[in-house]
Specification:
166 residues, alpha+beta, three-stranded antiparallel beta sheet, two-stranded antiparallel sheet, 5 strands, 57% helix, 16% strand
């Protein structure tokens, strides 16, 4: 029996992903010529079809959407953290006052999209690298001054990166 509501929900999931991919295709190519539009439609449709079972299933997306306002605030804070960290890291290199610290950080968030954003943000910040992600646990290498402890590194990650998504 045909269920119009369920069918529309399935089509809408494909439609949103397709439009998002097409938007980024046009944004990155900055060209509206017919060949570019056809290629964008083909690539966006292909990726949308391949994403079933990875990004979404019949019931919807597997991750919760992030509010745009919160994401913008997070990105601005991330840019500030990158700048502060780069200045601090340069000073530590000049003083020769840094040691590598390996910590395992257990995040309170469990959404794979948020974990990926946090892990990549850590890696973007100078002096820190996310080495491994295992569910909601991150293994991070950080070059800190000799006075810092492992707990301070973990607290910084929770305060500067994770707190925006809880």
């Amino acid at each position: 029996m045909f269920d119009g509501g369920t069918y529309m929900k399935k089509v809408l999931i494909h439609y949103k992903l397709f439009l998002t991919l097409m938007f980024f295709w046009l944004l990155l190519n900055m060209s509206m010529n017919p060949i570019n539009l056809v290629a964008g439609v083909a690539v966006s449709a292909f990726v949308t079809l391949l994403s079933k079972g990875i990004l979404y299933n019949e019931n919807g997306y597997w991750y919760k959407p992030i509010r745009v306002g919160r994401l913008i605030i997070y990105l601005l804070r991330l840019i500030g953290e990158i700048f502060k960290s780069s200045v601090s890291y340069i000073a530590r290199i000049i003083k020769k006052d840094s040691i590598p610290v390996v910590v395992e950080v257990e995040l309170q968030v469990d959404d794979p999209l948020l974990i990926a954003i946090i892990a990549n943000s850590i890696t973007l910040t100078p002096g820190t690298i996310t080495v491994d992600v295992n569910e909601n646990k991150l293994t991070v290498i950080s070059l800190k001054d000799m006075k810092s402890s492992k707990e301070s590194v973990i607290n910084e990650i929770h305060e500067k990166f994770e707190s925006y998504f809880i």
